[in-house]
Write a structure and sequence with these properties.
The chain is mostly helical. It is built from 16 helices and three strands. Strand 2 and strand 3 form a beta hairpin. The chain binds acetyl coenzyme *A (ACO) and oxaloacetate ion. It comes from Phytoactinopolyspora halophila.
């Protein structure tokens, strides 16, 4: 047994995986051996899901069949439909969606089957269901009918259609599709690790995903994209006030969300792509406000603290420009990460061992019981 604990399990190798890999020194990310820089903008999210869940990029025939499977699974089931009006009334979107994702298990046709083959079918279904669930949630809380889905659109385009109520421009759908690819998997991040811990008790895939949703929600993980938008929009004054804002926040000992990373010692490669997308959308929409503020903040944080932006930083201005409501940014992350989480649950179940690390005891020793009257 290791004789020293690692705070936050930093640098501990907690699993073997063939799904994704990171070179933190060089700032590189690989999905099943493909460099993210090579595939972003070249593969669709559907191809990415196939790669993560099934091991390879699909052939044209495989992609056709897989896309049909995904389109056919754009439903949420009677139980979730019935639960929806109850959960929209309270809590944040991630709280509601965590409950709703769990309820998807009830009407899943493979609910009673815990085989790896059934895991695969459930995994594909969950990827198709998540965007529908987020869109339905948003429509219900807004007191309107969800826009009718379009089976000719992929997951990205259909989601933008159903959330904004407007058919997205082709380029907007392409950019969002690339965002989904960029967020799909990231080795042993907190939510994926959570999913694997749950799966490793031989619990079911919906339980593992429900746990992952809870872990993703926090502002130190997926919740940071929403926090970034709130920070950017809280800055009063012009872009020149950003330097002072950053200085004040950092000198008060507060963290700036969207910066720093446990693994990357160089720029997060996803941030490089998202920065470009943010700039392109600023040009396309004719509104540079949040892009300019983001650039200035990035420079100020780097100059003051030497921290790089992570995936959540430029995702905020990109999602905002795409018309996605701020409190749906983390649910959007979950739509994409569902592909990685489910791939990891399958991998865990295929070669399982209970995940049960050790701990280092730091409490008192040698205490003796006293009767309650003497304590
Ligand atoms: C999809 C994702 O999950 S990406 C990450 C999303 N999360 C965020 O953006 C939240 C802001 N970032 C952070 O809190 C951290 O950088 C994390 C959680 C991502 C990584 O955490 P850790 O590896 O545990 O690093 P830790 O929090 O210990 O930071 C190390 C040092 O850098 C500082 N630091 C790290 N990130 C930040 C930040 N965003 N703002 C200010 N200071 C920071 C810490 O204060 C600490 O300084 P110290 O050594 O002087 O005390
Ligand atoms: O890997 C991490 O710790 C967090 C992260 O960037 C992600 O989950 O995408």
């Amino acid at each position: 047994m290791a004789d020293k604990s690692s705070r936050g399990l930093a640098d501990v190798v907690a699993a073997t995986t063939s799904i994704s890999d990171i070179d933190g020194e060089e700032g590189r990310l690989f999905y099943r051996g493909y460099d993210i820089n090579d595939i972003t903008g070249r593969i669709s999210f559907e191809e990415c899901v196939h790669l993560l869940q099934r091991g390879d990029l699909p052939t044209a025939d495989e992609l056709g069949a897989f896309a049909n499977e995904l389109t056919g699974a754009r439903w949420i089931g009677e139980t979730t439909e019935a639960l929806l009006p109850h959960v929209v009334r309270s809590g944040t979107p991630m709280e509601a969606l965590r409950t709703l994702v769990s309820s998807l298990a009830v009407d899943d046709p493979d609910a009673a089957d815990s085989s790896v083959e059934a895991d695969r079918r459930k995994a594909t279904r969950l990827v198709a269901q998540m965007p529908v669930l987020v869109a339905r949630y948003h429509a219900d809380r807004s007191g309107r009918e969800v826009a009718e889905g379009d089976p000719s659109l992929g997951i990205a385009g259909n989601f933008l259609l159903q959330v904004t109520g407007e058919r997205p421009a082709d380029r907007a759908a392409e950019i969002f599709d690339a965002c989904l690819v960029l967020h799909a998997d990231h080795t042993m991040n907190a939510s994926t690790f959570t999913a694997r811990v749950v799966a490793a008790t031989l619990s079911d895939i919906h339980s593992a995903i429900t746990g992952a949703m809870g872990a993703l929600r926090g502002p130190l993980h997926g919740g940071a994209n929403e926090a970034v938008m709130k920070t950017l929009s809280s800055i009063e004054g012009g872009v020149d006030t950003v330097d002072r804002f950053v200085r004040d926040e950092l000198s008060a000992g507060r963290k700036l969300m969207g910066f720093g990373h446990r693994v990357y010692k160089a720029e997060d490669p996803r941030a490089t792509h998202l920065r470009r997308m943010s700039e392109e959308l600023a040009e396309l929409t004719g509104n540079r406000h949040y892009f300019d503020f983001s650039r200035r903040m990035e420079k100020a944080v780097f100059d003051t603290k030497g921290l790089y932006p992570n995936v959540d930083f430029y995702a905020a201005s990109v999602y905002h420009a795409l018309g996605i409501p701020t409190d749906l940014f983390t649910p959007v992350f979950a739509i994409s990460r569902m592909s990685g989480w489910t791939a990891h649950v399958i991998e865990q179940h295929e070669d399982n061992r209970l995940i049960r690390p050790a701990s280092e005891y730091t409490g008192p020793v040698g205490r003796r019981w006293k009767d309650i009257s003497e304590r």
